[in-house]
Amino acid sequence: MYRYDEFDATLVGERVAQFRGQVERRLSGELSEDQFKPLRLMNGLYLQLHAYMLRVAIPYGTLSSLQMRKLAHVARKYDKGYGHFTTRQNIQYNWPALVDVPDILDDLAEAEMHAIQTSGNCIRNVTSDQFAGAAADEVEDPRIWCEVIRQWSTFHPEFTFLPRKFKIAVTASQNDRAAIRLHDIGLRIYTNDAGEVGFEVIVGGGLGRTPYIGHTIREFLPKKHLLSYLEAVLRVYNLEGRRDNLYKARIKILVNAGGVEKFTDMVEAEWAAIRKSEIDLPAEEIERIRAYFAPPDFEALPAESAALEQKRKGDVAFARWLRVNTVAHKASGYAIVNISLKPVGGIPGDISDVQMEAVADLAAQYSQDEIRATHEQNLVLPHVKKDDLYAVWQALAAQDLATPNISLVSDIIACPGLDYCTLANTRSIPIAQRISERFADLEQQEDIGELKIKISGCINACGHHHVGHIGILGVDKKGEEFYQITLGGSGAEDASLGEIVGRGLSSGDAVSAVEKLVDYYRENRQDNERFIDTYRRLGADPFKEALYAAA
Amino acid sequence: MPLLKLFGSDFAPALEEPLQEVSLEDWCDNPQAHADATALVIENDIGVEHFAEDLSSFRIIILNFPTFKDGRAYSQARLLRERFGYTGEIRARGDVLRDQALFMVRCGFDAFEFADEDAAAATAALAEFSFAYQPAADRAEPVWRRRLDRPAAA
Amino acid sequence: MKAITGNRLSDGAVVYLRDDDQWTTQRSEAARFDDDDIAPVLSAAQLRVREIADAYIIDVSADGAPAGRTIIRETIRGAGPTVRGDLGLQAECCA
Ligand code: HEM
Ligand code: SF4
Fold first, then answer.
1. What's the pLDDT tens digit per position in A222-246?
2. Range of A34's domain?
């Protein structure tokens, strides 16, 4: 894992001191709320329905057990004993007092954490593959490049007042677990035909009011040019992106308005002018950063664990959890463990301080001290020995963290919605809870197979509904909560945007609608088809019919 | 509206010398008619790269922040300094606050029409951060270079 | 009828303007105004920048309960998240 040196630590500490001063100026009345708001947003502090909300960055989703304990401490000391993991590898606290926030940030800084650029029209926390460094299918650890980008983008003097927020995601695997085609910039590390490793640069993806899948503007960028190329993209965007209309200000609009070619030409021209400058890091600095991400010392273990096999045979519940929640690791004898933050009837992404401590304990004892946050609002223990899986499972189960539902129908992404969010049309969480209760039967869930349900409480799409196999969007109809269903979206390597099917439904009907869609799929699937495959084969019409046929 | 100028790493009040201002459009239309202009005002939706060659005759270029959230002038200033080697004064006008002063200085601004900042507060704001991760127009040594320069054993 | 609400600056708590011009966290204590009288009250409230982060007008019924288009929002805002009955004002009343 990356560790701060004196420069990183100084800058984060100075940022807290700066914000402490800004809070004081606000409390004394020297700053108005209008003046203060952008300053607090730059430090991840929102004002929500009931209170302030603090968004803390988890750069590229990687946490040590010490950091997780610090998050638990903040939840306990300053909040109401819990936190909420989001789709952007951040954690949000829903009840901090403004007067406490500088102290919270000081406490976080002790564990090399911060809330810098988790909001505002700047380059946001860079996200990545939650299995980075552990995945069997990766070219190299993408977090090296995430850290390179984190440093370059932190307090970037030119790009702190962009037309709109700017999100970058990096993956190094064919299987896209970072939704790179739905970010302002998506970077895919791969090996080209000449055997060199570099980036495919994808620009202009995004969700919200006008969703777009990103376009590849450069097939292959040698790694050493990453920062100068990003600087060129950002400069074009800063100068040319629209500022007259909030909803047209994202880079996706700029890319698509003038066409990809024109945009690409502008970027390439700008890059030609700056590529020889000092923006790109020298090899020594990249190697310095790379060294932090050297793989841990994995023991030489046989691929199969006898202890594990014995438990698997003897315990059906454990066997199910193994099938559903663990993933192949690149090192022999190890596995990646997914921790579900989606218990039946629970609040997606919420975790108590006690659970955080338990996860920290497990990471320290069994997972090389590492934890990951996923963009699907779950956690991961990336490096667990197969021999230890049974013990890990038992400890997770004791904390209600072992629901075997990863990627299944009850592994639902839901934004905070009207239970917390000032911008919401409707609530999201109760819909997720009711769907997961309706499909509580684990055997049935496994039979249904991969099914991604994503719920947003308004068109901002924080719950990614556009890219849910089944998406649910809350709409306000004369002060009543209604829900619109979209079908056929995907946020993975086969990215696609869902299609709206029919009229809005009441909350009860929306839950039943999911059931009808699932029934139709089960009756009509072939072989090992997933829901999304059957949908793509048959098209929207039969599903619509099933949905709206005499209820 | 105090005008503060940067001297080294400090702000100091500057005497408001009367300027002969001309907008870029007017100047382009008829340079001769504005031969006595001392300051060029460039709005932030204009691509400075199209004109930069001819700007060196101006002692002062004024860039605009209609609101502090509109950050186009940061890029304009960097282009003027870094690409076109403009060495005259670049002045920030509009919604200019001390909370953004460091970013502006890093992008090449050296004079500021602050709404209501005193020189001491503005200077203090510049000192809030000891290092910068990335190179910019101020030629501050980026953190990676400091890392390379530090004694190996440290 | 109308009432004035906002979030307290120091901690973000939901507050309402009372008849005596103080802020209260109890919606039942909120002063109620006729629609025509509210504008100057809001302007005055918005000047109190050291007390509240923002202030705005909500519709209320004659007994002070939220009404109108934002009824769900303001009900949840006043009570607490519907998915966490143990949090917010709703937790205080009947514990
Ligand atoms: C509760 C406070 C929140 C507020 C006020 C908020 C606000 C917004 C807004 C205004 C947008 C649209 C921006 C645009 O399209 O330019 C947006 C998009 C988004 N938000 Fe949130 N959000 C909140 C919470 C969350 C949470 C909890 C998550 C994760 C679960 C999240 C993840 C996202 C994502 C992934 C997008 C879409 C990015 C895109 O448009 O490309 N947000 N949010
Ligand atoms: S999608 Fe809408 S309701 Fe949900 S968190 Fe985002 S802004 Fe709030």
1. 999 999 999 999 999 999 999 999 9
2. 6-110
The verdict on residue A405 lying in a domain is no
Percentage of chain A modeled with pLDDT above 70: 100
Distances (CA, A) of A133 to A62, A64, A381: 10, 14, 12
State pLDDT tens for residues B37-60: 999 999 999 888 777 667 888 999
Task: Please indicate, yes or no, whether residues A328 and A229 belong to a single structural domain of this protein.
Answer: no
Query: What's the total number of domains in chain C?
Result: 1
**Owning domain of residue C26:** 2-94
- Check whether residue A313 and residue A281 sit in a common domain: no
Residues A436, A496, single domain; the answer is yes
CATH architecture of B3-129: Alpha-Beta Barrel (3.20)
Chain A residues whose CB is inside 8 A of the B128 CB are 14, 17-18
**Which CATH number characterizes residue A468's domain?**
3.30.413.10
Residue where a domain terminates, one of A290, A321, A350? A290
Closest ligand to A420 CA? 1
pTM of the model: 0.94
Does the model's ipTM exceed the 0.90 cut? yes
Q: What is the DSSP string of C54-85?
A: EEEEEEB-TTS-B-STTHHHHHHHHH--TT-T
Q: Across residues A410-420, what is the average pLDDT?
A: 97
Q: Which residues of A touch C53 (CB under 8 A)?
A: 33, 47, 98
8 Å CB contact of A238 and B75: yes
Ligand 1 binding residues, C-beta < 6 A: A 46, 48, 53, 86-88, 92, 164-165, 167, 206-208, 250, 415-416, 420-421, 423, 460-462
Whether A330 is covered by a domain: the verdict is yes
Task: Out of B72, B82, B103, name the one closest to residue A157 (CB).
Answer: B103
Instruction: Compute and round to an integer the Cα radius of gyration of chain A.
Output: 23
Query: Does the distance separating the beta carbons of A39 and B71 come in below 8 Å?
Result: no
Q: Per-residue pLDDT tens for A97-156?
A: 999 999 999 999 999 999 999 999 999 999 999 999 999 889 999 999 999 999 999 999
A103 and A220 assigned to the same domain? no
Ligand nearest to the backbone CA of A178: 1
Which of A2, A3, A5, A7 should we substitute to test contact with B (largest number of B Cβ atoms within 10 Å)?
A: A7
C-alpha A207 – ligand 1 centre gap (Å) = 9
Specify whether A418 is located in the same domain as A483: yes
For residue A511, the one-letter residue type is V
Any A CB within 8 A of C72 CB:
yes
CB atoms near residue A315 (< 10 Å)? 15
B93-96 long-range contacts, Cβ below 8 Å, gap at least 24?
B93/B41, B93/B62, B93/B63, B93/B64, B93/B65, B94/B64, B94/B65, B94/B66, B94/B67, B94/B68, B95/B65, B95/B66, B95/B67, B95/B68, B96/B65, B96/B68
| Segments making up each domain of chain B, as ranges | 3-129
Task: Write the DSSP symbol of residue C30.
Answer: -
Please state the atom number of ligand 1 nearest to the C-alpha of residue A420.
1
